[in-house]
Amino acid sequence: MTPSQGPRDRARHDSGLLDIGGVPQWVILSGEGPPLLVLSGAGVAFSRMPALFAPWEAAFTVV
Fold this sequence. Notes:
This protein is mostly beta strands. It has a domain at 13-39 and 52-62. The chain is 6% helix and 35% strand. The chain has a 4-stranded mixed sheet, with no helix packed on it.
C-alpha cells in the first residue's frame, strides 16, 4: 500500500465510544493521511497495542 499523493491533513489523535449497529465499540483514530480501517476478531483488543500500528501513522489515519 502507498499513501495518497494529495496534501497532508494534520495528524489526528482521537478516541471514543461509538454505537455501531446497537453495539458499543471503542474507536481510536491516530495518524495522518487516508484512513486505514483495522478490523479484529471477537475478543481481540488492539487498544493495548498502539506500538504495533505506530509506523503506519505517518502515512495513514489508523482506525
